[in-house]
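tool=predict chain=A
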Amino acid sequence: MGITTAIAIYLIIWWVVLFTILPLGVTSHAEAGIDKGDGGDPGAPVDPKLKKKFLTTTWVSAIIFVIVYVVIRFGLIPMPNSAPNF
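tool=predict ok
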């Protein structure tokens, strides 16, 4: 696996994990009983804690990436040598 492929795989894993972690622990304005006034979305989070979620996403993604790297590096799941001819 080349460095470009490794970076691409890590970024894909990072985005998937981010969208998995984003809704965890969020309280909306409607759930908190806060009136947003005119034009505000009652489903908007009160405190999204994005910095904490980005850090959590980064370390969870790193762990998943290491597992994927080990599986590919040691051939636990064989990878094809070339693309199929259609």
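Helices lie at 3-21, 29-32, 50-73. Residues 3-73 form one domain.
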